[in-house]
TrEMBL record, chains A, B, C, D:
GO biological process, one term: organic acid catabolic process
Entry-linked InterPro entries: 3-OH-isobutyrate_DH-rel_CS (IPR002204), 6-PGluconate_DH-like_C_sf (IPR008927), 6PGD_dom2 (IPR013328), 6PGDH_NADP-bd (IPR006115), HIBADH-like_NADP-bd (IPR029154), HIBADH-related (IPR015815), HIBADH-related_NP60_sf (IPR051265), NAD(P)-bd_dom_sf (IPR036291)
SUPFAM superfamilies in UniProt: 6-phosphogluconate dehydrogenase C-terminal domain-like, NAD(P)-binding Rossmann-fold domains
Lineage: Bacteria, Bacillati, Bacillota, Bacilli, Bacillales
Originating organism: Peribacillus deserti
Record has Ribonucleoprotein as a keyword: no
Protein's UniProt name: NAD(P)-dependent oxidoreductase
GO MF assignments: NAD binding; NADP binding; oxidoreductase activity
Length: 287, 287, 287, 287
């Protein structure tokens, strides 16, 4: 029996893929409404994280931030105290590496095995089972989780011991931020010189210098509709984590830090809640 | 008869693809030695650009910089005075848009048609006939050159009137510089947090946030061999052109300008002549 | 007899100081109206730059930009052709070093001696005779001009041969731009943490970390009135000259280049014509 | 009786000024050796912070970092438990605002009054009694400490409630970092254009665009001796605190963040322990 806690945009799609592959799944979410369609497919409902722990052999969590992870694991009715020794917790939430290591230690203290396994990919890849798992922890624990991950993702990348999955997630989100901002400046430059916006975009997207994910932002930039898939303020928060991690590990990232501040300026100018690709709108503003 | 002037790393491979497709080609290069292998394949040698103009119906130029283009076109023994009215000159050199427009005007004054058609892609794509042509000029002039371009390239992108090909080339090189620098910072961050360099690279290159061309830099970063395919100082020069163009067209590119200075700092520290991917070595230096 | 050409905000005050010290002055300006108050004080009017050259032993120019300097010196009715061999031209205009050197060569070719002598200081110091002259050219030519400069300024700094005065002016304007922007970010940071704007300003201005000229911007920042003493777009232009000069001389200025782009972004957002201290308003914007 | 804890470069000079003005002072320091010269002047030695608390009416602390402050106040033999209710603690250490507020709360819980009063100025101003106190806390507590502060400093700036002194200190150190880096880039630019280093420095230091403290760095830059008055790594740490504070308070500081990374790069290249003015050496490096 697989436990799954956290049924947001990502989690509900991941749990659904487990169900469709024939796994038995016991679910919990703060709001039960989000579980309804999965219960119809045969999933079992648990009233609390603790109750998940009583029945599951392995628990996946996919939660919004460190505070929620901590509460679900260690709070009142948290699952960690109840989870039998020797079982495996796989946290897919995006959190900072030091928090991850702390959770790993909390698990270890209770003889629970732990993997940090944040995912690269958003709504559509989650739906299609095409996520990429960035995993920190023991190889053999990963082997145990692998069949389930393969149902939810297309690739599983072992990065090292606990914390390394979260570390790699920061690296990936840095690339995401930089690629989007560079693309935005490049289009802005092209337009300023009289090139057609759409031609510039097509040329870049058809070439080898643009990151593949930028194709998925094409329509947003073209039509100026920045409904959030990944809100700018979340990415800017990750960039601050990047800045802090680089400081702590004694490396300098001049470009990343400027990029961070440009997203920050866009936030100051009112774009916090929109998709982070709105950075194009900010940078190409003409008044 | 196709005229081809400029047989460097790129030009010799482009001319060779024309020959292999059965075109008759008349060549000129500053040093004849570089033409030898093409002459064996049946190309004709011209002693000067002027002599190319006497026999060619269309002339392609692939030269190092504006000074050389100007000299070959307009200097003593330049081809432009001798080229019969109505013929077509296709300049594939990477030069700045204002120089390109000036060449277009010089051509027009002599009733010569002109396309600026710089290419995206370096040595290997040139060899395989997989370049991307970024073209500025009249649509019908492009139609005339298209069959030859198709032999040398895999894509032909019409960007607008004269100068727009060169403008787009600046945009592409900006993306090149940014993607390489962002990748370098990301790997540096990952390593500082204890991730394996090769794992970070593989994870990023296997995902959707890294530009495809970065695959071709993988071995350089892994083995620390930065023999130049595209020397850092050339890219840094292009970034200064980007900065100047942005200034003239009233747009601000904060990230591009920092990136420019980081390449500039690497140049100051002795990396001018190495491949621009050496920016990784500079950014990850630990002393 | 001293010739003085260019009676804008700066030039009219400088010429006035010469007059008040008892010098005979012959004036020219595009619009005669601006000379009226000086003519009442005893200055002589010349209908053209050429006419100035016929009567002056030394000519000072204080003009808006390279184009105007070139036109006044070398255009129709320009003074350089008419100026007797051996005389001295002192150009106080702020122009780029390469233009200055070109003017020096034009003068030399006609046996005219030349000093580039841009000034640090704006309206009030010009009025009080408290400018700082940054001088490029021969020491003995400077000695000849020194008594007049002492009437208009409080300090005369010899920087080296022709062009070096203009080079130093770029350095000074870089400091101006950086100090203003740093002050603006510092106040913004302080306010964000709940400090009083005025207290932060007073503390910084009363300490050793703020450039003295910032005192003169205090009221603008406090009352939000950014009427131009030095328009933002002019300073941003100088920063682009700085960027270009640094590139040409192989040094990297990462902070200067970011600062340039932040002024550029402020320009893009509509602040071109306001005093450059408006950068505070831009950086502290909250929406 | 005044208690004084922490006799480093700053503290020993501050305590000495109190003694010389006739105050009775009881001292403690981790190493007693540093107190010897003050004991000869009549100061009293305390074996522990706790013992200071038993005899002092007011306690000043001047310590290296938050960890030491916390240990001296709250650790084993810490002074806070022993200090009679109603007395006043003045912390002059440079720490981050959130730590300061925490100390304020710890004091309040024990009915101890608290001022955060970090100082601007280093070794020489400390010696001459010319520090600037940046004070957070109640106005009437400040009035009580004022006579003593006046003996140690030349200015006392009340910034608001507890925490605001520390906040203002961050602002001051940001200005310090920016001014030094801007000055370094400006000299580098000047030298690259052929100006004499000393002339550039003199011109800037004699003008209105350079912060007054830069005069004290003149000899270091001229003679290349970067013995630390304020080590680069400490300033870079403060810049990371600035970056974090700006993030938390939703303002963007693009220039500050680049400056931070340039100091960080200098650290990476081996300049951590030298005076922060060594940034000039890093930026002007030519290889």
């Amino acid at each position: 029996m697989i436990g799954f806690i956290g049924l947001g945009i990502m989690g509900s799609r991941m749990a659904n893929n487990l169900l469709k592959s024939g796994y038995e799944v016991i679910l919990h979410n703060r709001s039960k409404a989000k579980a309804d369609h999965l219960l119809k497919e045969g999933a079992i409902w648990a009233e609390s994280p603790r109750q998940v722990a009583q029945q599951a052999d392995i628990i996946f969590t996919m939660l919004a931030n460190p505070q929620v992870v901590e509460s679900v694991a260690l709070g009142k009715d948290g699952f960690l105290e109840e989870f039998p020794a020797g079982r495996l917790w796989v946290d897919c939430s995006t959190v900072d590496p030091s928090f991850t290591r702390k959770m790993g230690e909390e698990a270890l203290r209770r003889d629970i095995r732990f993997l940090d396994a944040p995912v690269a990919g958003s709504k559509i890849p989650a739906e299609k089972g095409e996520l990429v798992f960035l995993v920190g922890g023991d190889e053999k624990d990963l082997e145990e989780a692998r069949p389930m991950m393969e149902v939810m993702g297309k690739a599983i990348q072992h990065q090292g011991e606990n914390g390394k999955g979260s570390s790699m997630k920061l690296v990936v989100n840095l690339m995401l931020a930089q690629s989007m901002a560079a693309f935005s400046e490049a289009i802005t430059l092209g337009q300023s010189m009289g090139l057609e916006k759409e031609t510039v975009m097509n040329t870049l997207l058809g070439g080898v210098t643009a990151a593949p994910f930028l194709n998925s932002k094409r329509d947003k930039l073209l039509h100026g509709n920045y409904e959030a898939e990944f809100p700018l303020e979340h990415l800017q928060k990750d960039l601050q984590l990047v800045s802090q991690a680089a400081y702590e590990h004694n490396v300098s990232l001049p470009i990343a830090n400027v990029t961070k501040e440009i997203y920050g300026l866009a936030k100051q100018f009112g774009y916090s809640k929109e998709d982070f690709s709105v950075i194009y709108k900010f940078l190409s503003a003409r008044m």
